Amino acid sequence: MSNENTKFINSLFLKNLIEEHYGQKEVKIKTYTVEPPSEYGSAYTRASINRVFVKYSAIGNNEDIITFVTKVKPTKGELSDEFKLSGDFTKEIQVYKNVLPAFQKALKKVGEKIDFTPNVVSIFTSPTDGIIFEEVTNRGYHIQFEKTGLTFEQSIQALHKLGKFHAVSAVLMQESSIDLERFAKGTFHNDWKSKMEYFNEAYRMIVDNANGLGIDSAIQQKLRDFSTRAIPKVIEDYTSAIKGFRVLNHGDFFTKNIFFKYKGNDLVDVLFVDFQNAVIGTPLIDLFYFLTTSVAVNVLASSRDELIYAYHESLSKTLETFGYNGTAPTLNEIQVEMLKRSSMELYFALTLAPYLRTPEPRVVTAVQPSLYKPEYLQQLKNHGKIVLSQNKDFIQGQLKRFDVVGTLDYTGDEGRIRGIMNRFATARI
Fold first, then answer.
1. Number of structural domains, the chain?
2. For 260-275, how does the pLDDT look when each residue is reduced to its tens digit (9 = 90+)?
């Protein structure tokens, strides 16, 4: 059933689409349905997404059925006003229309072919902006349930492809062959300071419920002290670079935006979706975000270093394939930078990860500040304590690690974390 945002999807629209993009002639639409898809739709979706089933006939084809997915900029209902002012959907259009084709062109020059996303059938601008994608479940791709977290194998595969994505973007930025000006702002930016109340409230909720979460009083006090300069420090970390090295980040790189494909029991590929929060910056944006929001808690505890190594190996090999002559970060430099910028990771872990790891009860996060409505804060106040209790073990484990590496001491005595950074900088890995 069509909704207010998909009324334009009718027999004429479908006939023209199939004739133009599927190579059929004299198409006659017999029946069609438009419905929210279980695997694309979620509490975190910031657009109108629907699966379309079409039964049709054409010359040489008595009857056939096709399915595809539409992602449409809302013109009615929730977030329609915000989308009118935000450039987030335009970002996504640019990724699929300009950026990804440039990636493929560059890869072809070095004899590589890597699919990063589902195939795009069509991009349109009337009566609203929208994208039509292939139905990737037809090719065996599926998302995973976010509450369980990703396995080691799934995490490695996702990070391998992320490393390639980042590397290609760095090459093209060095060549100035694509316009990425629109991707200057992500979740944390000085222009969004007035939109940071969600993060302040989510952080306060951790501090205020420390006893119930099993957080000892010493760490609770450090969290309280850290809050006095948290947002400026996180903005500084988010907008940094690794010795000048920057990439195009996905910006919302977590379980719900990654599709996995298996052949039998073997994981063979992953695809990414939803680039509305794509942003130029340090690759740690995606790396921290993925590690905190998506990897199974036991895998993160036992294999964090291996995951970082896998990402770096993929990044480095791809840069080498292109003959990249910029300053590519070494594994040591990434590890040192992860310590230096760990305030960003802490904020991801405490204010975003619990809510992205927990599908119910619903709490919409402010990962896209330009689309965050003040009334969403009530969801956090109503359900935050429940979500935090469900993620108690994760929160405890993260805070213990942050305490060990000195992240929580960064507001006062920086000697501890500086000492650890210096040991990494001089170590041979």
1. 2
2. 999 999 999 999 999 9
What is the average pLDDT across 377-395? 95
Q: Are residues 164 and 179 in the same domain?
A: yes
Query: 131-188 pLDDT, tens per residue?
Result: 999 999 999 999 987 778 999 999 999 999 999 999 999 999 998 877 788 899 999 9
pLDDT band per the 50, 70, 90 thresholds, residue 31: very high
Report the chain's mean pLDDT, rounded to a whole number.
90
Which CATH number does the domain housing residue 160 bear? 3.90.1200
Are residue 113 and residue 154 in the same domain, yes or no? Answer: no
Residue where one domain finishes, among candidates 117, 134, 151: 134
SS3 annotation, the chain: CCCCCCCCCCHHHHHHHHHHHCCCCCCEEEEEEEECCCCCCCCCCCCEEEEEEEEEEECCEEEEEEEEEEEECCCCCCCHHHHHHCCHHHHHHHHHHHHHHHHHHHHHHCCCCCCCCCCEEEEECCCCCEEEEECHHHHCEECCCCCCCECHHHHHHHHHHHHHHHHHHHHHHHHCCCCCHHHCCCCCCHHHHHHCHHHHHHHHHHHHCCCCCCCCHHHHHHHHHHCCCHHHHHHHHHCCCECCECEEECCCCCHHHEEEEEECCEEEEEEECCCCCCEEECCHHHHHHHHHHCECHHHHHHHHHHHHHHHHHHHHHHHHHCCCCCCCCCHHHHHHHHHHCHHHHHHHHHHHHHHHCCCCCCCCCCCCHHHCCHHHHHHHHHHHHHHHHHCHHHHHHHHHHHHHHCHHHCCCCCHHHHHHHHHHHHCCC
Asked if pLDDT for residue 323 goes beyond 80, the answer is yes
Of 110, 134, 158, the one marking the end of a domain is: 134
Q: How confident is the model at residue 247 (pLDDT cuts 50, 70, 90)?
A: very high
What is the structure's pLDDT at 43?
Answer: 40
pTM to 2 decimal places:
0.93
Domain identity same for 205 and 331? yes
